[in-house]
Amino acid sequence: ILTVFDKVEKGRESLLKQKDETEKEFEKEKKAGDNKIYSDDEEDDQSQEEVMEDIKDQISELESVLTSLSDFFGSLFETHKKLTLELVEKIIKQYLPIYFKEESSNFEKTLGLLLIDDMAEFLQQDLLENIWGQIEQIMIKYSSHSYYEVRNAACYGLGVFSQFTKHDFSNYGKDILTAVSNVIKLPIEKSLTKTDRENLKFARDNAVSALGKVIKYHGQEFPSELDNLIDFWVNSLPITQDKEEGKICNKFLLDILMKEPNKVLGPGNKDLGQIIVILSKGYKTDSSDDEMDKNIDSFAQGIKNNAAYTAILNDTVSKQKGKTLNKIKSLFKLDK
User: Fold this and answer.
1) Between residues 2 and 215, which one has the greater pLDDT?
2) Contact of 157 with 120, CB cutoff 8 Å
3) From CA 106, how far away is CA 110, in angstroms rounded?
4) Nearest to 287 by CA among 231, 183, 205
5) What count of other Cβ atoms lies within 10 Å of the Cβ of residue 293?
6) Which residue in 151, 153, 161 sits closest to 182, CA to CA?
7) CB–CB of 114/96 below 8 Å?
8) Which of 123, 67, 124, 115 minimizes the C-alpha distance to 94?
9) Which of 110, 159, 212, 270 could cysteine-pair with 266, CB 3.0–4.6 Å?
């Protein structure tokens, strides 16, 4: 499979070189006032735009193949563990130095991150001890990248890195917290297209989920900061685009509510209104499941049976509108 990957990658490199040479040739022709090129193999003239689009389409097709092959590598990492270490070594030595050059394309950076994400998730710290710290530094470097796919892959990686770091997390924790917090705080400009905003929200979702994983798996290593970290995490929810990570976060939130509710409710139950919104939005959606829905129902019933909590519920209802308001009313069975 690595041989196939290598052949496809070389084909892509050849097309990229062809694209650069063709662009230079067209630039020369443009200066000479010629807007057409002529092919000995084709009867019809082909415009410069059509030629470039054809090359770009071929590059895109090969990049899709490479992405699919990287997914297959991930499956191998998951199912064959130690048997893939020779493959991992070749990827690290042969491809990652190219993919993480400063001048590499967004696709190359994303592909490199997808590969190390799968390594971190399926091979984990014990099998990657010698490069574990390097993996973290790459993820942190690209976590605030301007291109959403690069940012998203890096933030997802920081989550799985945190989840599967079984020892010495103190060497990484503060840098990871700083990185994911910075991503969560990054503004998403309203001037962007709806698609671009949703894509950046997807990356932000993975940063929020990564923060949750730091709290879940290593919160005890930050005793003086833990309350503030939980408060920041709760108020960064709900996750809106990445439903899989949304389910992970909602389940974790419910687990804390059932075991140590004061940890997430905050002083004077100040975050209860936010939690009502989060769970109402997640209820009976792709960010939940049957068991979680039962727990959310129990949560809602507990709120309605507590006078102090009911006052917060009513205040929360008064501040909401539209879909969010309807979801709260549906969960708590309030008159619409």
Assistant:
1) 215
2) yes
3) 6
4) 205
5) 16
6) 151
7) no
8) 115
9) 270
pLDDT digits (tens, 9 = 90+) for 75-114: 999 999 999 999 999 999 999 999 999 999 999 999 999 9
Q: Which amino acid is at 141?
A: K
**What type of residue is 11?**
G
Instruction: Give the contacts of 332 (CB within 8 A, at least 6 positions apart).
Output: 280, 300, 303, 304, 313
Record the tokens describing residue 89, joined without a space.
């070594």
The torsion angles phi and psi of 96, rounded to 5 degrees, stand at -60, -40
Please give the sequence-ordered ranges of beta strands (E in DSSP) within 106-183, or none if there are none: none
CA angle 249, 298, 276 (to 5 degrees): 55
Query: Distances in Å between the alpha carbon of 212 and those of 68, 173, 267, 275?
Result: 29, 13, 20, 15
Cis amide bond preceding 97, omega within 30: no
Side chain identity at residue 70, one-letter code: S
| Confidence grade of residue 336 (pLDDT, cut at 50, 70, 90) | low
Angstrom CA distances, 104 to 55, 93, 101, 133, 304, stand at 19, 16, 5, 22, 56
Query: 230-245: string of b/e by CB count within 10 Å (b at 16+)?
Result: bbbbbebbbbebbeeb
With a CB cutoff of 8 Å and minimum separation 6, the contacts of 1 are 69, 72, 73, 76
Looking at residue 30, its pLDDT comes to 75
Whether residue 69 contacts residue 117, with contact meaning beta carbons closer than 8 Å, is answered with no
